[in-house]
Amino acid sequence: MSEKRKQVSRRQFLNYTLTGVGGFMGAAMLAPMVRFAIDPALQTSAQGDFKAVAQVDEITTEPQRIDWTIDQVDAWYESEVTKSAWVYKTEDGDILALSPVCKHLGCVVTWQGSEEYQDQFFCPCHDGRYYKDGVNVPNTPPAAALDVFQHKVEDGTLYLGKAVPREEL
Ligand code: FES
């Protein structure tokens, strides 16, 4: 009876050992780097969160500018960002919170910003105008209505979320 033994040469043994140890060490070094590279991109951002901005009984039928801050996380960069909205109560008693960002080229609109058009939002950059409900005035530069903030009311407090085009509300 003959027994076949598979011999491993010293060279092969060294090759297997060094490949195994080298692979293990490489994986151990790469894992934290890969995690650092992709982890922030996988985390959810707080941008969609609602933030308390005002008491509902302080809101009138006249648009008033409300500013608040949010913590914004852009992948690896965290910052505090100031947001603004033009907020008022409609005739139905609903609350409308309009983005002040002009839909033409992104300047900031103001309520009654023009002496000539007292019941409109006015953009000083290119004389863009919007009606009180945020709809763009025809034949002025903006081609779309102002975005509208998602909102909710809880215990008399107004919370604002993300500004979205009104057709997405
Ligand atoms: S940016 Fe507002 S009209 Fe041009």
Automatic annotation (TrEMBL):
Keywords: 2Fe-2S, Disulfide bond, Iron, Iron-sulfur, Membrane, Metal-binding, Transmembrane, Transmembrane helix. Residues 87-160 form the Rieske domain. It comes from the Bacteria. The chain crosses the membrane at residues 12-34. Signal peptide: none annotated. Pfam families: Rieske. PANTHER family: CYTOCHROME B-C1 COMPLEX SUBUNIT RIESKE, MITOCHONDRIAL. This is Ubiquinol-cytochrome c reductase iron-sulfur subunit. It comes from Aquibacillus rhizosphaerae.
